[in-house]
Amino acid sequence: MMRQYELVERVQKYKPDVNEALLNKAYVYAMQKHGQQKRASGDPYISHPLEVAAILTEMHLDESTIAVALLHDTIEDTTATRAEIDDLFGEDIGALVEGLTKIKKLDLVSKKAKQAENLRKLLLAISDDVRVLLVKLADRLHNMRTLDHMSAEKRARISEETMDIYAPLAGRMGMQDMREELENLSFRHTNPEAFETVTQRLDELSTRNEGLITKIEDELVELLKANGLPDPVVKGRQKKPYSVFKKMQSKSLSFEQLSDVWGFRILVEDIPACYRALGIVHTRWRVVPGRFKDYISTPKQNDYQSIHTTIVGPSRQRIELQIRTRSMHDVAEYGIAAHTLYKDGEEVSGEVKLSPKSNAYSWLRRTIESLAEGDNPEEFLEHTKLELFQDQVFCFTPKGQLIALPRGATPIDFAYAVHTNIGDTCVGAKINGRIMPLVTRLNNGDEVEIVRSGIQVPPPAWEEIVVTGKARSAIRRATRAAIRKQYSGLGYRILERTFERAGKQFSRDAMKPVLHRLGQKDIEDAIAAVGRGELSSLDVLRAVFPDHQDDRVTVKPSYDEGWFNMTSAAGVVFKLPGKPGPTTDLLEGEGPEALPIRGLSGNAQVHFSPSGAVPGDRIVGIMEQDKGITIYPIQSSTLQKFDDEPERWIDIRWDLDEANNTRFMARVLINALNEPGTLAEIAQAIATSDINIRTLTMGRVAADFSEFQLDLEVWDLRQLNHMITQIRELPSVSTVTRVYA
């Protein structure tokens, strides 16, 4: 375990006038508060904040940040309070420690929602003070280094989260060394067999080529000096296991096919020297075509600058070269830590902030803007992950403005990157002067001109085309607004009819005084909620006219041997197959359980067509007055009668991201020989496919043939199609067809 004096000495090496008293006080306070607490490894708990602080000294951070690292677990894990830390260390340090605590203290059932909320809080805290991120990443790095002492389940969960969020976030903030270490530590636990195999092969390669890296370094230095570049620094290294594995996966290569396992960095004094070094190297050795990138003239979004090239270098080895200045190297190594204002001797109210000129800051600002755009936590997490993981292409507007986009982006992404309104009104695009489809993937250097129309509304299908979170968020918002408008029309008609039946006149103004009772923000929200089935029209009637007495029929359910017995207030008994649910209002109905379908909002009253629909079908929703939404497969013949009423159509699709725990009904028609055993063969094939028969109807269609209509309960379309194939192979079966009503 690191000692207190060793930590102070580390800071003194890059900051001789360090405030030793602050560091000593923070150490003593943390030591007292953590007391006899132990880590899973058995080490004293204080060893963890000390190691986190040590990681931050490698980035040459100020003593305030080091003090926060020492204190970062005190509020969460000890009796320490924010007020106590404010008194002892000042409000600046107290706010940082509390900010780190809030990130962890969440009580959410959904793992995905908890992860999303943690990321939201982290990004918001970073926007106030970037030191929150630096401490959080150092905390995660030390936890990953000591993960062996956790259970296998915890190791897998923490490693997956690190690979999903923290490693790419470190990369997006320009902290490449930290990203690589986090990735490798995660790789070791998420895929131990692959990690072991790749590590072993790299060790064998290193042993076989012992001394080669030093030889290439010396040859490059000698070449650059001989051509007039003073004091060049050349650093070579073998690629990390995860980097090698990722390349093997993405390029479908075996280890033997990898030709650039070594990378070398050339550090020179200034930008002109970078291009001189490039010319010297290219003159001496052959260049590998298509492997040149200039990130000096066009920096990455995390502020990374360097020239990348691959050559067939000394000893005929293919090697990657990165040519950069020493200041660029600091940014590449430490990312945002190299951009903090205290580096320039400026400190504003004790806070270390990102420079507004930083590209990393710009990305962070755009991401934080999306927090206010109404996305749910899962959508926000999905969009942020997309932006964290994607490589980049750089395109230009007709006026020369540079737009950086994820690789695979389309003109639609480009339009939304320029401005949300431009994306919403986009109808076409010119790429390098030529009209091209909106699904075209953009390339580096493309000039993109967006063609707009004032009457355009972004189609929901665009969501499947775009790759940026901003575009997806905007398209979903526009889709929700369009659906809200449709629901408002349906809700208005339902309310008119309900009020008319009660002998009352419906008006929007009458709803204004009772919105708070209905739990709605505004009148249009309330009307749309009625259209979705979330709000009963009778509840609106009673809210507007409290004295109104309705004559609704109340159904009281009971359950007996597989039948649902419903008795009305008038004493009439309805006997239906199934299980009972809650008390039901015959006039209005109740919303169903949540369905794995995108495009439905809240607890809308949802029904399926008589022949059903299953995950994997292309589906559409039809708004039907008094019934809510009915879901049809796109092949349903019933849809033809709605051709002239496009306002009733709702764009929906199955959401198969989560595991499906529900069976859905599908109807099939089987024509088979009328002989003993036929039905048994068919039933056996259905049972073997793990499919349940809900109902069976049969009749004779000819002297030798019978027709069976079966309503089946299946998990998805693949299972249904597999069963249909199995039944078609039965010798007694003539035809099997899916029924779409």
Automatic annotation (TrEMBL):
The keyword Kinase applies. Residues 667-741 form the ACT domain. Keywords: GTP-binding, Kinase, Nucleotide-binding, Transferase. One of its GO terms (biological process) is nucleobase-containing small molecule interconversion. SMART domains: HDc (SM00471), RelA_SpoT (SM00954). Residues 45-144 form the HD domain. Its EC number is 2.7.6.5. Residues 391-452 form the TGS domain. Signal peptide: none annotated. It catalyses: GTP + ATP = guanosine 3'-diphosphate 5'-triphosphate + AMP. One of its GO terms (molecular function) is kinase activity. Pfam families: ACT_4, HD_4, RelA_AH_RIS, RelA_SpoT, TGS. GO terms for cellular component: plasma membrane. Belongs to the relA/spoT family. In eubacteria ppGpp (guanosine 3'-diphosphate 5'-diphosphate) is a mediator of the stringent response that coordinates a variety of cellular activities in response to changes in nutritional abundance. This is GTP pyrophosphokinase rsh. It comes from Pararhizobium antarcticum.
